Amino acid sequence: MTYLAKNLTNGGRELIAFRIGDQEFCVNVMSVREIRGWTPATPMPHAPQYVLGVINLRGAVLPIIDLSARLGMKPAEPTVRHVIIVTQVKNRVVGLLVEAVSDILTINDDDIQPTPDMTSEFERTFARGILAIEGRMICLIELEAVFPHTESEAA
Amino acid sequence: MDMNEIKEIFFQECEEQLAELESGLLRLNDGDRDPETVNAVFRAVHSIKGGAGAFGLDDLVSFAHVFETTLDCVRSNKLEPTQEVLKVMLKSADVLADLTNVARDGGSVDQARSAQLIRELEALAKGEAPPAASASEPVAPKAAVAKPAAVAKAAPVEPVVNEHGFAPVAFSFDDFGGDEDDAVGDLPAYDIVFKPKSELYTKGNEATLLLRDLSRLGEMSIHCNMDSLPPLDQMDPETAYFSWKVSIKTDKGEDAIRSVFEFAEWDCELDVTAVETGEASDAATDDLPMQPVPFDLSALDGDLDVPLGVVEEEEQIAAAQEAAAETASNVVQMAGNASRAAASEKSVAAAAAQNNAQQASSAAAPTIRVDLDRVDRLINLVGELVINQAMLSQSVIENDSNGVSSINMGLEELQQLTREIQDSVMAIRAQPVKPVFQRMARTVREIADITGKSVRLVTEGENTEVDKTVIDKLAEPLTHMIRNAVDHGLEMPEKRLAAGKSAEGTVKLTAKHRSGRIVIELSDDGAGINREKVRQKAIDNDLIAADANLSDEEIDNLIFHAGFSTADKVSDLSGRGVGMDVVKRSIQALGGRINISSKPGHGSVFTMSLPLTLAVLDGMVVTVAGQTLVVPLTAIVETLQPDAAAIHSFGATQRLISIRNSFCPLVDVGRILNFRATQANPVEGVALLVESEGGGQRALMVDAIQGQRQVVIKSLEANYTHVPGIAAATILGDGRVALILDVDAVVSASRGQSLQLESSLAAVG
């Protein structure tokens, strides 16, 4: 607890770590609204492959993104074991389909290492940094880049 | 909805604009140099000015105008928004708020302060440093602001030219244009006897306003018949005693005269007779026991500036003045300051009491303003309740085979209750567009008067219901558009006649529901868009390259750019270029689209298509390729089970279905929405015959019909994006999301325009 408090006062932050395939990723806990189980989504016509569709989140229509496909990996085959991380950036709420939530991490900004200098689409767009925690490598995701682009953004 | 209600809405909006103005200025003060902030501030002042102009609040308009001019300098980077400048502006914002409050509640403002600020603002606009406060001149003693107490003042007061240097805007017949004056002798004349009953006043109508409207039709002389006025001690202050005899020369015809009294005709005796030309004025003069009083309209606009001449002419009244000073003072007011005519029928005390009563009643209006978020939350919760109830019913039915248990009965009652709650909650938000349209009518009148154009506003579909948010946010863009349509769109009467059109321009405003959206169309029969001018202006403003190759449509759409205005001079009305970009932004903020189509010489049509975010929709629930879709019931003409013999192949991929010997293209919804790769067999499905915006009929193929139900529209745009072919989403009884089909988009897609194309265009726009 003291460790947590110390970290938070020193510009520390909490992250939620989750698993897709054999890789681990994390997002800032402040942008996570809730975590819920997988429910079948209503597919959207003409949607990109990574948009699985929309579900009803207490009266709101929530688009679900297959994060695996979004990050350029193999599209997920959702099962009841999958979870949806409901995230919010600005006014938009989007659900991210991941395999499992693994951890809540408390880290310092200093712990975030810059992404290695590679030219792949993935790391330029989605990765904001890497964390080394207990021998694991966890990639910090830029949430805004993951969200589907809207017309207003394009305009 | 009477004038007071409309005015109340304006003041409510003013409050919002003032809040916006202040927060924007404070942001600027904190060092924010975002041009959007400056624009927001500018728009707030501009909107207040526009609205105030519509209600004739001259003090407010003149102050806002100066303020706006200075802000314009900031906006165009001519003036650096330094701390000093912003200090003046924040003070100006306060004065603007004061003026607004005074206009609503009466009272007075600190004239010295506003005069000083006007000088400072003007100095800033000219690029000078703000003058020190000590340099301010002594303030003119007369307050130009109307006080309710002034009603009691009987003595004529000199017209006040207020110390801002703004002369009151006198509204006289000369303003109607010289050509009319010349022709006036030849116009048909009418004698009108107008005798209001007491009910007229009880219903909040006012003879003055009717007479003022009447005066807009042409030159008129007016005489008040006071014969039935009893002595003061027998007078009932609530009774109407006066009647008016009006002689008017107008080319608008008797119908126009009668339409002035349209809302009052049951509460007055009205007699309109045509008089043969030439004799009209004589007859009027001879018949009357008194000389007709020249009806100077400027008296109507200012509350205090009663023309002096009137008293001298009214010798009889002067005599009466000696006998019963108080009553006579009312008569003088009635003759001169007709804006108080209603009050003049009663004793001064009664008038004051009435004023108080009016204020009291407006304060006690049985409405509350509730934060929309709260209503939204309630609506969402009720939506959840309905879904939950449906899910509960479903599981009870599945688990309870005999179906007569008390649980079932309780569930039925619950269902009814939830339905009622849902209806009531929806009723809070869905409202007809009528109030907005009515406000537009006034806007059109005012602008027509100022520009000297003759304009008729035709409205259709006023009872189309749409979400409250949409209505509220519609008023501002619509006002801008109407202003533009009249100011820029319509030509001057002479030009119109020369072009072979009627002198009177028509502005048409229609509202209708179209597949889950509300479509509002504003069309004028004016000159259309001057594409050459627009193009040149766009090049001058560096919006497009000089050699850009643009289609007509693209040129038309240039007018939606910020800072674009083709008006040669900045007018009080429009022409600062805030208009159309504000319109587009407001519409987009509502999740809507706006389009313009213009035919040179025939006018322009603005089409706004807005979502009914929270409106309820009657829909047909259908299955397409395993997915549940909702088709708006309004779009469906009929449903039919296609017969194999009725299906005809047409070309490589097209198929037609013959319905009663006419052929209609068959559209596979599943294919259009990309739910399946190949076309389904029509015989296995159901065809929905739909009629689209374009007018054509199409048979939409779906796999099966599940039933009809009312669904709550949920926005897809909020968290996702607009999906071509899909109007919105809804949540069905099983808690799953179903998509609502955008029939028009699907039909136009079937015409060969791809759905994706539309979305990419939308992204560019």
List the helices and strands and how they pair.
The complex is a heterodimer of chains A (155) and B (765).
Chain A: H1 2-9, E1 13-20, E2 23-28, E3 32-37, E4 51-57, E5 60-66, H2 67-70, E6 83-89, E7 92-98, E8 100-107, H3 121-125, E9 127-133, E10 136-141, H4 143-146, H5 151-154
Parallel strand pairs in A: 2-10, 5-7
Antiparallel strand pairs in A: 1-2, 1-8, 3-6, 4-5, 6-7, 9-10
Chain B: H1 3-29, H2 35-54, H3 58-75, H4 83-105, H5 111-125, H6 178-183, E1 189-196, H7 198-202, H8 207-215, E2 219-225, E3 243-249, H9 253-260, E4 268-275, H10 280-287, E5 293-294, H11 298-301, H12 309-313, H13 315-323, H14 325-336, H15 341-344, H16 348-363, H17 372-399, H18 406-429, E6 430-432, H19 434-451, E7 455-460, E8 465-467, H20 468-489, H21 493-498, E9 505-514, E10 517-524, H22 531-540, H23 552-557, H24 579-589, E11 593-599, E12 603-611, E13 616-624, E14 627-632, E15 636-640, E16 647-650, E17 654-659, E18 662-668, H25 669-672, E19 686-691, E20 697-702, E21 704-712, E22 726-731, E23 737-741, H26 743-750, H27 755-764
Parallel strand pairs in B: 7-9, 14-23, 18-20
Antiparallel strand pairs in B: 1-3, 1-4, 2-3, 2-5, 6-8, 9-10, 10-12, 11-12, 13-14, 13-21, 15-19, 16-17, 17-18, 19-20, 22-23
Distance between the termini of chain B: 38 Å
CATH topology of the largest domain in chain B: Heat Shock Protein 90
* Biggest β-sheet: strands ordered side by side in the sheet of chain B: 15-19-20-18-17-16
CATH architectural arrangement of the largest domain in chain B? 2-Layer Sandwich
What's the N-to-C terminus distance of chain A?
47 Å
Rg of chain A is 16 Å
Task: Calculate Rg of chain B over CA atoms.
Answer: 31 Å
**Overall mean pLDDT of chain A:** 81
What is the count of structural domains of chain B?
5
Oligomeric state of the chains? heterodimer
| Rough outline of chain B | globular
Order of helices and strands of chain A: HEEEEEHEEEHEEHH
How much helicity do the residues of chain B have?
40-55%
EC number (chain B): 2.7.13.3
Domain CheW-like (chain B): 616-752
Catalytic activity (chain B): ATP + protein L-histidine = ADP + protein N-phospho-L-histidine
Modified residues (Phosphohistidine) (chain B): 46
